[in-house]
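Inverse folding, one chain.
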């Protein structure tokens, strides 16, 4: 699946630029629906691999285009919360599947997974296109109709229309290719975007999420109790991030999330160190359970969704396609590496594995404090103007102050 996600991420930005955000989401659901059906009807492992690969391609498209679409259609004061709602809905789906998986086998579970994909194939016909994408193409009448529909028929959109048009006038489409992305003026945004995605994965999130049952098993904690508990706390922890993102801001929430992940990785490392040394063996299952639970909670509150929000905000619209594809590719390819090697790392040393991830979380805190700008309360056009005016890495925090 992560390999398919890497392929989908590679083409996600270009597809969203050529065909629009709505049609790209629709296109992704075709892959997801087909992938789930192939898994449900698979006759051997090869067909399972094909189904997972197609599902990964669809999710690779979704992880780019959904945050971009939400960021482009929402007002600045609730943009963070609305984009974070994407993470909340993902957690609702995961929680539902975790719980349902306790009662049905994998084939019916795969068919259940195909249902929301098929529903969305129909539902997307009733969703308006991104107004900013329409404005970028010069489709002014459709742009205003879409924006009015998004804001409500009785809302005066004249000021927002003027702001978006002014922002589009600064866009230089001649400098929108991948080779233009590596200019000095985009260096800071590119460093932040790719850096956050790499650190998100090197902190071990894919490994902990995919191998939670293996961690519980090695620690001697009951797997059913562990996975069911994770399912129950997925939704409330995501709701907490939804309320905090536009109150605390991006930077404080990212650093708090990374700090919590770091402490939980240290706790996991200590629990397996005690097991290896045969000291207090009764503590290992409890500490491991607390570590996994705390890690997933603190990850979801901040680092699970915020890198995607920031990715949607910091890149000017003329390079958002190439930059978004590159950033999403960095996330999925690194996720594939972590998912592949995590099991081998556990066999090598469970304690050493989590101490390494704790170190990556520590680097994340320093990275966010040093380089990541605060974008809370700014429109996408204000962020874009700030990035054009100066090359300073702290221009956006200064504007915000």
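Residues assigned per position:
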């Amino acid at each position: 699946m992560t390999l398919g996600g890497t392929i989908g991420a590679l083409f996600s930005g270009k597809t969203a630029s050529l065909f629009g955000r709505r049609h790209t989401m629709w296109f992704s659901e075709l892959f997801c629906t087909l992938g789930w059906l192939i898994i449900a009807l698979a006759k051997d492992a090869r067909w399972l691999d094909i189904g997972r690969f197609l599902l990964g391609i669809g999710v690779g498209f979704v992880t780019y285009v959904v945050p971009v679409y939400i960021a482009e259609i929402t007002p600045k004061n609730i943009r963070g919360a609305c984009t974070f709602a994407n993470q909340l809905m993902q957690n609702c789906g995961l929680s539902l599947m975790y719980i349902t998986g306790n009662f049905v086998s994998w084939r019916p579970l795969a068919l259940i997974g195909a249902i929301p994909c098929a529903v969305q194939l129909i539902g997307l016909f009733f969703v308006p296109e991104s107004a900013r994408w329409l404005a970028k193409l010069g489709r002014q009448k459709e742009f205003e109709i879409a924006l009015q529909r998004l804001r409500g028929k009785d809302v005066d959109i004249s000021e927002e229309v003027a702001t978006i048009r002014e922002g589009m006038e600064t866009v230089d489409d001649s400098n929108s290719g991948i080779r233009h992305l590596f200019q000095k003026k985009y260096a800071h945004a590119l460093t932040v975007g790719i850096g956050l995605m790499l650190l998100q994965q090197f902190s071990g999130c894919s490994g902990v999420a995919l191998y939670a049952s293996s961690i519980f098993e090695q620690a001697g904690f009951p797997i059913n109790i562990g996975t069911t508990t994770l399912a129950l706390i997925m939704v409330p922890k995501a709701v907490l991030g939804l309320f905090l993102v536009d109150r605390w801001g991006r930077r404080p929430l990212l650093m708090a999330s990374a700090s919590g992940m770091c402490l939980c990785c240290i706790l996991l490392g200590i629990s397996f160190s005690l097991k290896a040394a045969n000291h207090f063996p009764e503590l290992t299952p409890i500490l491991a359970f607390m570590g996994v639970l705390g890690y997933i909670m603190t990850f979801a509150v901040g680092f699970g969704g915020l890198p995607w929000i920031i990715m949607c905000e910091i890149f000017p619209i003329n390079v958002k396609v190439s930059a978004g594809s590159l950033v999403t590719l960095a996330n999925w390819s690194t996720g594939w590496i972590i998912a592949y090697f995590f099991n081998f790392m556990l066999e090598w040393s469970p304690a050493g594995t989590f101490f390494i991830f704790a170190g990556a979380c520590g680097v994340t805190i320093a990275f966010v404090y040093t380089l990541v700008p605060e974008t809370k309360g700014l429109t996408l056009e204000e962020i874009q103007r700030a990035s054009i005016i100066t090359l300073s890495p702290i221009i956006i925090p200064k504007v915000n102050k």
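The radius of gyration is 21 Å. Residues 229 and 293 are 8 Å apart (CA to CA).
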